[in-house]
Amino acid sequence: MEMNYSQKGILGETIVALELMNQGWDVININTVYRNYKNADLICMNANNGKSVMIQVKTGTTHNILTGFTSELDGTIPNIETSVIGPWVFVYMPDNNLSNMEFFILTKEEVIELVTTSNNWYVNEWNRQLKSKPMIGVEVDWLRGNPSKASKLNAKKQHPEYKSTLSQTSQNKWEKITDLLD
Predict the structure, then answer these.
(1) What is the pTM of this model?
(2) Contact at 8 Å (CB) between 171 and 103?
(3) What is the model's pLDDT at position 96?
């Protein structure tokens, strides 16, 4: 049976929570108490020192994982600085295959920079005119620290290649969360 968008999101949140719990942290899924809380999905806590971190989880099955942000036609992203309140985990589940899942962890600052610069590239550097406000996605290749294949293929014809702000992969960089709890 094919999972819908909401089911994929719940699955991603659950698997991220289980991974953090497996590392010894306490985790609460906010969405079990407050339906689709806007700026975070999980609270990860260190019971020994009382520190906690709010985490946003974004799950996708294609090369482009949606961020939940929509761009203005001029490339600005309303409220991005206040909407990103902690680290994000991007869960890539190609072809709905649980055995091939990949986890990409970004700090708050990395999320804001990647989303802002890639959206500026998409809105302002492509050789076309937007007719509606685009939903903003993040390419899995960018999370891996690479330019996307599509970007490379179209660079000469349509637009310049996007250079990811991530200089290396963010895959399995759980310490971007756990270091905040120590």
Answers:
(1) 0.91
(2) yes
(3) 72
